[in-house]
Design a protein that fits this description.
It comes from Rubrivivax benzoatilyticus. Keywords: Signal. This is Right handed beta helix domain-containing protein. InterPro entries: Pectin_lyas_fold, Pectin_lyase_fold/virulence. The chain has one domain: 3 Solenoid (Pectate Lyase C-like), CATH 2.160.20. A hairpin with a 4-residue loop joins strand 31 and strand 32. 3% of the residues lie in helices and 42% in strands. The protein contains 2 helices and 36 strands. It is mainly β. The strands form 5 sheets. The protein has a 21-stranded parallel beta sheet that branches.
């Protein structure tokens, strides 16, 4: 299933099931927590648009769909947390969650999350995670699978500053696609210890006022496919590295980092690095058709690997770098001279989509012809 999502295939159409459990003022269930206790395996829970304060819940069904109805649903922790962990705790099943914003979770352990995902499979789609201590946090279950699509993460902050917008533990697989992660403070925008990572067509950017540490980190190594992302490091960051691999020691039998058609923008300078790969393991490293901007050290500084066509441009190549619009300014600003991206484990690495701000994907008209994540010029 995750492979199908990564390739851009449509999600399967589910057969008709029982009538949804409806939540909202005047409904059978006025609180989500009540619906969580009543729901059975295979149910659909529909929550009316609006704000729900302190309505925290634990879900343990084997299969469950939760979706907003009629507009967005805003879940404000308001001083409460399920099991002293998160606004929602999900474990043990196959979950799909769509259209919810999770805000303001704080707990004694300083890891209060919008969602704590512990076991099973979770697809989170079109959700927002704002001003929690952690945005979305997983357990370390090696069988768990997490897919995050079209979601926004911003300003999630622990009291000690070591926040992460999205933190995947030692789970089986992680897919992040079409998301916007921004405005971190000291912690990382995306940190993953998953064995298999697909980070496809996202925007990971400090933005004005942001000062995250790594923009993208794989501290245990593993297998990471990083394709079609816009990654920007601000001048205010205290950490000079945009992408980090293996910094906390390698775990597992295989380590590979494949970076294809990303746009990497360094605004810090002064000894910055686009990529650091820690010593200590054999790493299959490939970097092709990435577009680099800034004074950071070249990708090749990361160590032995395959490096092809990773040109460096200045800020004038972008439509409006000051406004963080990293589309090519014109057809000539970033030439259409990309090389063949090849294949990895039998699958093509050529992008089929590009990120459209905010939190959308657009299919490419043919092959990706330019280095970098964004193919469509701002001006002809």
């Amino acid at each position: 299933m995750l492979a199908a999502i990564a390739a851009g295939a449509a999600l399967p159409v589910l057969a008709a099931g029982p009538a949804p459990l409806r939540v909202g003022p005047g409904r059978t269930f006025e609180r989500i927590a009540d619906a969580a206790r009543a729901a059975r395996d295979g149910d659909v829970v529909e929550v009316d648009a609006g704000e729900y304060r302190g309505d925290v819940a634990v879900f343990t069904q084997r299969r469950l769909t939760l979706r907003a109805a009629g507009g967005r649903v805003r879940l404000v922790a308001d001083g409460r947390a399920a099991e002293d962990k998160a606004i929602w705790v999900l474990r043990g099943g196959d979950f799909e969650v769509e259209g919810f914003d999770f805000e303001g979770c704080r707990v004694d352990g300083r890891n209060g999350a919008g969602i704590r995902f512990e076991r099973g499979r979770l697809v989170a789609r079109d959700c927002g995670f704002f001003a929690n201590e952690m945005g979305l946090l997983t357990s370390n279950d090696p069988e768990a699978e997490l897919a995050v699509e079209g979601c926004e993460f911003a300003r999630n902050l622990r009291p000690d500053g070591h926040n992460h917008q999205l933190y995947a533990g030692r789970i089986g697989s992680l897919l992040v696609r079409g998301c916007w992660l921004h405005h971190g403070t000291i912690g990382h925008l995306l940190k993953s210890r998953a064995a298999l990572n697909r980070v496809l067509h996202n925007r990971l950017t400090d933005e004005p006022g942001g000062r995250s540490s790594y923009e993208l980190e794989f501290p245990d190594g593993g297998v990471a496919l990083v394709v079609g992302n816009v990654v920007q490091q601000s001048a205010a960051t205290e950490n000079p590295i945009l992408v980090s691999f293996g910094a906390e020691g390698y775990r597992g039998p295989r380590h590979a980092l494949v970076m294809v058609h990303n746009t990497l923008v360094d605004e810090r300078g002064g000894g910055s690095r686009f990529l650091r790969v820690a010593p200590g393991a054999t790493v299959e490293l490939r970097a092709l058709n990435n577009l680099l901007c800034g004074d950071a050290e070249a990708l090749e500084a990361a160590g032995p690997g395959e490096y092809r066509h990773n040109p460096r441009v200045d800020r004038r190549a972008f439509a409006d770098a000051a406004a963080r619009d990293y589309r090519p300014a014109s057809a000539r600003a970033v030439p259409a001279d990309a090389v063949d991206s090849g294949r990895f484990d039998g699958q093509t690495l050529a992008p089929r989509f590009e990120y459209r701000h905010p939190c959308r994907l657009a299919p490419l008209d043919g092959a990706a012809r330019r280095p970098g994540a964004l193919q469509q010029p701002a001006h002809a």
